[in-house]
Protein 1
Amino acid sequence: MADFGNNPYYQLFIKQKNNQYNIGNTTRSERVEKLNKLKKALEVTYRGDIAKALHKDLGKPTVEAELTEIYQILGEIKFAKANLHKWMRNQKVTTPMALIGSSSYYKYEPKGVCLIISPWNFPFNLTFGPLVSAIAAGNTAIIKPSEMTSNSSALMAKIVKDIFTEDEVALVEGEVETSTQLLQLPFNHIFFTGSPNVGKIIMAAAAKHLASVTLELGGKSPTIIDKTANLNKAAKRIMWGKFVNAGQICVAPDYILIDQQVEDEFKGLCSKWVKTFFTENQKDSNSYSRIVNNRHFKRLQAHLENAKHYNANFVFGGDTDENINFVEPTLVSNLNQEATLLHDEIFGPILPIVTYKTLVEALDYINSKERPLALYIYSKSSTNIEKVVNNTRAGSTCINNNVVQYSNHHLPFGGINNSGIGKSHGYYGFKAFSNMRATIKQNTMGINELLFPPYTNFKEKLAKLTVKWF
Ligand code: NAD
């Protein structure tokens, strides 16, 4: 084994490694007790502090702190508690005739010592959400949250310390270097949420120890609107899905692909809904978040400059205020195909519109890009909906809505290729942190033993019968 003696997190790692079987052998009710402690911390003890930290870090309105952070984690806890008895028991499967005399099952055993690395856009949800699955599955975990939302990270460190001993769950605050040092250690599983580029670094580090990975990544999620769609409802839902958390959402619509015949009407309806949600002057709206920091503000400002450079049409928005990391909700059309808004994941409150003449053209456009985390289609035509779904690949889809697929714990959540590997939420999160251990129990003599060497003509005939009938 490699020498990790100089790694600052090695001792912590070893403490968890030595404790992993104690944690792995906990009963359902012991795991539920831990989940209850986390529930109480979020629901009661730290609820107000969480809202304050999120407001300091992201200008997040309290309603969004409740709905997009606390509610989501409590939902994960509730779902895990209700289903843990099913997930933890041996899962019986059929045994084929050729193995008669035995019975078969698999069980979900904990992977062991896990690393959870999380991003900044929903700091609590995307840190404690995976932690719920890790605990439910009986693992120990070291958590590295994002350095960009430092108030949230500091509070999460306090919550973790309150509930767990560090040989079970520990939270390490730090920048990229901290991640790099943690990634050198031979974790059994790495659960990463973040950008595709960093996802590649995580996977390369995991490959050194053949650690399994769940990569919850991002990318450009397209939204198709055909000419049969209810444009008013589409505009309302998209203006919410795009501008909640100021567009800093992995499953936010990244760009619109709309039938050119209905573009103008749709643009007018978008203006109406943005004003309804965030008033005429969005800077003063207390329902609208801020960009996380100056680095991301500058990144978004560069997108706006680039769009102006290409003489794009700003349907609305485009204003910024660097002092408060404010970027106005912005809708842009007539973009040159070279514009950066059509190439990089936007991850902010700027929405480009691209028009199409035929649905096939729209599908070709989507399929010329990386496979997205989400793909949305607004249409009343079941033929068109089917055509879109059957001729694209994506992590998830909403038909006539967006973003809400994230909230259904019965559904697997995750991307495909560039937008992610593996799934999370509910049962799929529990599965991500578990190894399915296959077991065969021999109860009586198996007929396969009749075929043990030395081989005879009789055994050859029996082998042929087995091939034919069993
Ligand atoms: P990021 O990839 O820059 O950072 C995520 C985490 O990785 C942070 O904790 C960071 O410290 C760490 N990190 C950054 N660079 C690293 C490196 N070189 N080596 C090791 N660790 C490193 O992502 P972000 O800016 O925090 O978040 C935005 C991205 O995350 C977007 O692409 C978004 O779509 C994606 N995202 C995906 C989901 C999902 O569930 N699929 C959810 C939220 C965000």
Protein 2
Amino acid sequence: MSTTAAQTPGTTAPAGATTAGPAAPTPGSTRLAPVAPGAARLEGGWWAARQRANRERAIPEGRQHLEEWGNLDNLRIAAGTREGVVRGPVFMDSDVYKWLEAAAWEHGREPSAQLLQDIREVTAVVAAAQAEDGYLDSVVQERGSAVEPGPDGDAGSRERYSHLPWSHEHYCAGHLMQAAVAVSRATGERGLLDVAVRLADHLVETFGDGPGQIRDVDGHPVVEMGLAELFRETGDRRYLDLAGWFVEARGQGLVAAHGHGPTYFSDRVRVREATTVEGHAVRAVYLAAGAADVAAETGDAELLEALRTQFAHMLATKTYLTGGLGSRWDGEAFGDPYELPSDRAYAETCAAIGGVQWAWRMLLATGDALYADALERMLYNGFAAGVSLSGDQYFYVNALQVRGGAHPDHERSVAAGRQTWFGCACCPPNVMRTLSSLDAYLATTDDEGLQLHQYAPGRVEADVPGGRLSLVVETAYPWHGSVVVRVEQAPESPVALSLRVPGWAEGAVLRRGASDEATEESVPAGAYAVARGTFTPGDVVELVLPVAPRLTRPHARVDDARGCLALERGPLVYAVEEHDLPEGVALDDVVLDPTGALEDAGTDEALDGAVRVRARGRVRGPESGASTWLPADAPAPGRDDELELVAVPYATWANRGPGPVRVWVPTA
Ligand code: FUB
Ligand code: ZN
């Protein structure tokens, strides 16, 4: 399927999915194509509630945070419209761009005069700061130094592009491009796009192998995705070429030339030769997502194959059950294979977002259900936990365990609970733009019909071979497993309607037709169930997914979780919080009895109606010894009482205040 027919995903999310844009000459191809803007709509349930909170609270409050923390003032200072000294991390501008992107997608979902006014005002602030030659980075323009000390130490710099490993100049540019495409697609206004195009033109002139050009890469990828998206929006092939150049330039010693170790920056190995992800997790997955864009748009099968290998290795050895990515606080980095500590997990919210972006691009490129599965796991767990149900409190780090007595020694410590903002605020506006662009992850089309990848109440209308297919989706997923798809309009010729059967859904069933004459068939997990034929208005297809609670064990090499089990239900990973234990029982002394029944335990209205899960447990302890090590034959703790364990979705933990929690529970 040509990506020119319906643009591939872009920006953060399926951004590319939201408009047709000008057709660009490209040999690229993806297996699946995103649906047109507004064609897929979330209208209720789990995600719609979060989108509402995002729209009503997070985005308006976000603009205030950008004022309070100085992000907008930095740009005003660079523009010369305000006196003062720029504040904050070197990438403060990127938070403005992420916020703009969020506001734009939100306006695209449901037009709002207030959002449009905000977008225009903030765009004006950004545009005023741009230098004559298109360069834009308020901190570098004003402070003359974009450098912050990094793990390898840093010599400092006082000029543009002189210290790209740390300066984030391209990182900010990439986020600007993503925001600009979103604003253009959602509002039809070109103001921010013009700024992004001028900056991109400047980058095209400045970077590359040509005479007088700089051969260097930014330490933090994202500009690759931004340039690819700008190419889709404008049809200007130079942007895609530069994205490809940045991808190819990695692994060629450019970061090392600045005196830094390359691993942290995903610069140790060429992207097309890498077999895993390593180093700083957000950088690694943003780079991979940008490389997937390049592979798809250029039809580079070798690069795509390398990305498949890397994704598979990440999933098999470096991904938390929650879909969280990055197991080290040190360097916010991926660890070694199976190095997945629960309590010290980093699993940054931004890394889950980057994982979603990469998975989406791989899904489009390959049509393989495993990417939609991974995307779902990351979204419902590692990502969703990053934001409170109220929509305006955030986790930066998403550990899978907090112990009794944990002391929050860092603003990112999970023990402190979610925060309204951070000095380094990459995650909050990243959450905002992801929530406001979620609709486009629901569905795609191909030469045979339409695919539903994620399930939520809503509707999808898309052009498929032969005409228009309009569907209404009725479901209470993830709480209930029935997904009813009603056809409202269909072409007169046959089409294929494909519904993803998640990998965990053994025993799923596909029903077709009215209840008295419905046909029913078992459909395999981890693939698409295809209802093929000529549909007429009123036809119904129902997918029934078994969402009963289940136990999951860790891979034998994950030392940290050895001897433990986790509870899952449908796409949701569950967690036990000390809040739900009887008074006086410490979660650290609790074990799970796997022989006990697992059952639903009603809903928790304080958690937005989340279905709770009940399991049998025991409380064993505390140990009476005065030491953390005991003779092997020392008696077990005296207390050993049966206990009812109640678990809640991991995504909802700490919404009743922080406290001890665990996903992996030791077994009796
Ligand atoms: O460097 C920009 C952002 O800040 C990264 O993506 C996050 O991990 C945080 O370090
Ligand atoms: Zn972040």
